[in-house]
Specification:
Blueprint lengths: L1 H12 L3 H13 L19 H13 L16 H11 L1 H4 L43 H7 L1 H21 L1 H14 L1
Main location: nucleus
GO cellular component, one term: nucleolus
Pfam family, one: Fcf2
Length: 181
């Protein structure tokens, strides 16, 4: 069928074989799909190599890559930023537990948040009841009485130290501010 079409096209129009295939290729690309009306602009006929490279780079930066199962960068909400701050300050929360120093200053770009699911085999007293479960780590810490009492005690201790040092403490801070500039 294709051979007869080529022969017919060559005889009737006077095109060569390569010109016909170029035309057929262009006609194949010019088909409009059902979503054509929804598009705001006609797709470009040919994009430059730089534009394609830039587009690939933008797409690549959205995820971590195949090595990390294409983990996407989540949108940082207020709750997420508060939870990340809590994780960064975890060394100050429990006086009896040691955590190593944080390896980065800012928040990570790619991360995922999960929920620990309790084992149904565990007995009731080893699980937290649904009424006591909170949505975020910050809410959970604020509901914890031990944590709140420890923080109040530490806060009072810091305030009394500042008040005891008085003028000397303010001079020290002033000196640090001058050295920083």
């Amino acid at each position: 069928m294709l051979i007869t079409l080529i022969a017919w096209a060559k005889d009737s129009i006077g095109q060569s074989r390569t010109e016909f295939f170029k035309c057929a290729h262009l006609m194949k690309r010019s088909i409009m799909g059902p979503d054509f009306e929804k598009k705001e602009a006609v797709p470009p006929y040919k994009e430059s190599k730089q534009a394609l490279k830039l587009k690939r780079k933008v797409e690549k930066e959205k995820t971590t890559g195949a090595g990390w199962f294409n983990m996407k960068a989540p949108e940082l909400t207020e709750e997420l930023t508060n939870d990340l701050k809590v994780l960064k300050m975890r060394a100050t929360m429990d006086p009896k537990r040691f955590y190593k120093k944080n390896d980065r200053d800012g928040f990570p770009k790619y991360f995922q948040v999960g929920t620990v699911v309790d084992n149904p085999v565990d007995f009731y007293h080893s699980r937290i009841p649904k009424k006591q479960r909170k949505r975020t780590m910050v809410e959970e810490l604020l509901a914890d009485a031990e944590f709140r009492s420890y923080n109040k005690k530490k806060y009072k201790q810091v305030i009394t130290e500042k008040a005891a040092s008085g003028k000397r403490h303010r001079k020290k801070n002033k000196l640090h501010k001058k050295q920083g500039n």
